[in-house]
Fold this protein.
Amino acid sequence: TASLTAANQREWQKHIEARLKEKYPKMKLAAVRPCDDLKDKAQSEATAMMSANPNLKLIMSICSPGVPGAAEAVKQAGKTGKVRVIGLGLPNENKAYVHDGVTDSVILWNTEALGALTVRAADALARGTLKAGDKTFATAGQTYEIAGDNIMLGKPFIFNKGNIDQFDF
């Protein structure tokens, strides 16, 4: 995690732990460690976790610098294929690790789709066709759910060996 106290990170953690209990009841959560959004600290924390937990099978990062930091730790420890690394990440920071097989994939919002939705929503607000209290927003042939004051883009995008080179950010 980026931080043990940030509201968004705590919310993600809550859902991850619930999913863990529901879908993977035999899997044990070894530790939750902050990296303060720093790749080097994520690498250090991942190295420490692998040392403290020799049977560690997975490192999940819910902040972008955490994935390449953990992947570098796994690579340097010679544990590629033994310790999996997953999480949120930018394609450029993770291409080498995905191609080397240290990380199968990283997820993030499709920035092009997010940008297009943002511009369309701003235009609809300016025109008065999107109003407070609306439950859905329809644009460009798609309908999006609105939760509170958030328009929900949908599922995150998966960057993997087959598509990661198509992105430059």
Observations:
- The chain is about 40% helix and 15% strand.
- The mean pLDDT is 94.
- The two ends are 21 Å apart (CA to CA).
